[in-house]
Structure formats: structure tokens, C-alpha cells
């Protein structure tokens, strides 16, 4: 997938956050995870420095990450990795996670329900790729709660009982004009119809 951005550096905070550990052993240290006596800890990222490829090119096209060189004696080819691209300060884009989270909590609203972003119920799901950046004093546009994203996706999908699709059971539907995803089962469609019936701006009621 085309993407001009790649992470150059990460600066993590010095105190960990309790989390579910990916390791089953009693002791493990695999940065940024630490597993101690059955408890998992992770050091969240505070600052991420991104390298943006000039001209919107794919990452590594202009500022090379590696090159292919041949051994003059054996004739074997190998890859030589470069790190100079990480220090192209004029290509940097700095992301400060705490400020981003603060902005999201104070200003960003869910596109579906207009609700706030809260701990455990973040507004951080996007349905677009490479959207325009908004002004920092305004909330981010086009973001959803996780469950609101499912509702919005269901309402925009083809849920016809007898769709007429461009391909064999999937693709644009000539009957409703919406898109039927590949590999949809009847169980998936039943669930999506329940979500699509939720009125605009409302969220699914949890038991």
C-alpha cells in the first residue's frame, strides 16, 4: 500500500502502563513490554518522529532505506541498510501522543453519535485513508467510536436479500447501489441488518 510516512524514531515514557502481557513465561523483557511475575507492563510512546517522503512518493523511493550491493569476489548479492534517512530533519513530522489524546478528548466528536472520546471508549476509528489534516484547535473529522463505526459501515453496505452484484456474490449492487463485501455469510448479514436498523445518531444498547 502506498504510504509516504515511516517511523524514524520513538520516544517512550519512562513509567509503564499495566497491560495484558503477550508472554506466557514468568519473566520476560522484550522492549517495550516487560512481563514480571504474571503481570504485564508496556511503555507507551510519548513522541513519534515520522519521516515523510518528499513529493508524496512511497516511503523509501527517494530517501533510500537500503541498497543492493554485489560482493566483488563471490558475486553474491546482499542488502545494505541505510540509516541516514532517519536524520533528514526537513522531512520530519513530529507526533506528540499526549497532546493528540488531549485534543481528541476535548475537541473531537464521533461522526455518528457526536459523543466524546473517553478512556475505554475512544473516538479513533477512521473510514478514510490520507484525509486532510484539520486545524489543531478543531476536532479531528471523520472519526468514530468502535461500535459507531460498525453501525455506519452497516448502513452503507448492501444488505439486499437478492442482490445483483457485478461479481459472483460481491461488488457494487445494481439493486441498491451500495457495495456488498466479499465473503459475507448469512450470519454476517443478519448482524449487519440489526446494526443498520439503529436510528441515526444512536448507539447499540449493551446487555
Attribute tags:
single chain, 207 residues, alpha+beta, 2 domains, four-stranded antiparallel β-sheet, three-stranded antiparallel β-sheet, 15% helix, extended, HNH endonuclease
Please explain how this structure is put together.
The chain is α+β, with helices and mostly antiparallel strands and 207 residues long. The protein folds into 2 domains: 1-97, no CATH class; 107-207, no CATH class. The protein contains 3 helices and 13 strands; from the N terminus they run E-E-E-E-E-E-E-E-E-H-E-E-H-E-E-H. The strands form 5 sheets. It has a 4-stranded antiparallel beta sheet, with no helix packed on it. Strand 4 (33-36) and strand 5 form a beta hairpin. This is HNH endonuclease.
- Chain-averaged pLDDT: 88
Contiguous low-pLDDT stretches (5 residues minimum) are: none
**Number of individual domains:** 2
Biggest sheet descriptor: 4 strands, antiparallel
Q: Radius of gyration, rounded? A: 23 Å
Spatial strand sequence of the major β-sheet: 2-5-4-3
Q: What is the CA-CA span between the terminal residues? A: 39 Å
Q: Strand portion, in percent? A: 25-35%
* Alpha plus pi helix count: 3
Shape type:
extended
Helix content: 10-25%
Protein name: HNH endonuclease
Organism: Nonomuraea rosea
Summarize this, please?
Helices cover about 15% and strands about 25% of the residues. It contains three helices and 13 strands.
Amino acid at each position: 500500500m502506498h504510504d509516504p510516512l515511516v517511523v524514524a524514531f520513538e520516544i517512550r515514557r519512562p513509567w509503564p502502563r499495566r497491560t495484558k502481557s503477550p508472554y506466557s513465561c514468568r519473566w520476560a523483557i522484550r522492549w517495550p513490554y516487560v512481563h514480571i511475575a504474571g503481570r504485564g507492563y508496556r511503555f507507551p510512546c510519548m513522541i513519534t518522529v515520522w519521516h515523510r517522503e518528499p513529493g508524496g512518493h512511497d516511503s523509501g523511493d527517494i530517501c533510500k532505506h537500503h541498497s543492493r550491493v554485489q560482493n566483488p569476489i563471490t558475486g553474491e548479492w546482499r542488502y545494505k541498510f541505510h540509516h541516514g534517512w532517519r536524520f533528514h530533519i526537513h522531512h520530519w513530522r513530529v507526533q506528540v501522543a499526549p497532546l493528540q489524546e488531549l485534543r481528541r478528548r476535548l475537541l473531537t466528536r464521533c461522526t455518528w453519535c457526536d459523543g466524546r472520546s473517553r478512556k475505554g471508549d475512544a473516538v479513533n476509528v477512521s473510514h478514510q485513508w490520507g484525509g486532510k489534516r484539520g486545524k489543531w484547535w478543531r476536532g479531528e473529522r471523520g472519526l468514530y467510536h468502535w461500535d459507531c463505526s460498525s453501525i455506519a459501515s452497516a448502513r452503507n453496505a448492501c444488505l439486499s436479500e437478492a442482490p445483483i452484484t457485478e461479481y459472483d456474490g460481491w461488488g457494487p449492487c445494481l439493486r441498491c447501489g451500495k457495495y456488498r463485501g466479499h465473503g459475507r455469510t448469512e450470519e454476517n448479514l443478519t448482524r449487519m441488518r440489526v446494526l443498520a436498523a439503529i436510528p441515526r445518531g444512536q448507539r447499540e444498547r449493551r446487555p
